[in-house]
Amino acid sequence: MISRACSVVHADDHALLREAVARMLVDTQEFTVLASAGSADDAVDLVLLHRPGIVIFDVDMPGLSSFDAARSLVDLAPETRTVFLSGFWNDHYIRSALEVQAMAYITKAEPPRKLLAALRAVAQGRTYYSPEVRDRLVIGVRSIGLRNSTRLDQLTKREIETLRYLARGMSKKNAAVTMHLSVKTIDKHTTSMMRKLDIHDRVELARFAIREGLVEA
After folding, report:
1. Pick from 17, 23, 24, 22: which is nearest to 35 by CA?
2. Which of 107, 147, 166, 205 maximizes the CB count within 10 A of its CB?
3. What is the residue extent of each domain of the chain?
4. Alpha-carbon distance 10 to 66, whole Å?
5. Predicted TM-score of the model (pTM)
6. What is the CATH number that goes with domain 4-143?
7. Which CATH architecture does the domain made up of 151-211 adopt?
8. pLDDT 10s per residue in the chain (217 long)?
């Protein structure tokens, strides 16, 4: 019988990838895929419904940020372990994954056997980082952190979230709805980050976000 620790919810906006991962996991007879989703919003609902041992998030999906979704699950579903499976591994994404207590960060360049090895490790309560990710980390006895700091370190978590949504082309109103904040608060975050970064318009903010890997060009 498959244990709860090996039950999975998978979120990726590419249906072909979701189906391929599901087939691979089921074929091992070690994992069961309880549900899949095309967005982080839907993934949160499915995790709360099914209470899997593992949730796998793609990093860059439309709508709610995967990191914001994972952050909410730290409190709402602490028994579910978070894994990121992504084609991107810049410092900001890795830092965000660490902040939401992700157990694994796997690149899509890895062969399938490595994904299985990572999920087996997570099911057993251990961490897994692809080599490209591990090379950017300083792993200590009690903590894990990034080797380098960036201009993003000047911003608060909420300011970074705001920047990510605005750089995707969202209006302040839509960003406020997605983040469950008021437009006034979004204005406040925008003014604060422009001052800290010495950037004075949204076009340059978007360019900065792309350069820092907050969004893909």
Report:
1. 22
2. 166
3. 4-143, 151-211
4. 12
5. 0.72
6. 3.40.50.2300
7. Orthogonal Bundle (1.10)
8. 567 879 999 999 999 999 999 999 999 999 999 999 999 999 999 999 999 999 999 998 888 999 999 999 999 999 999 999 998 887 888 888 988 999 999 999 999 999 999 999 999 999 999 998 888 777 665 667 666 567 777 888 889 889 989 988 899 999 999 989 999 999 999 999 999 988 888 888 888 888 777 776 5
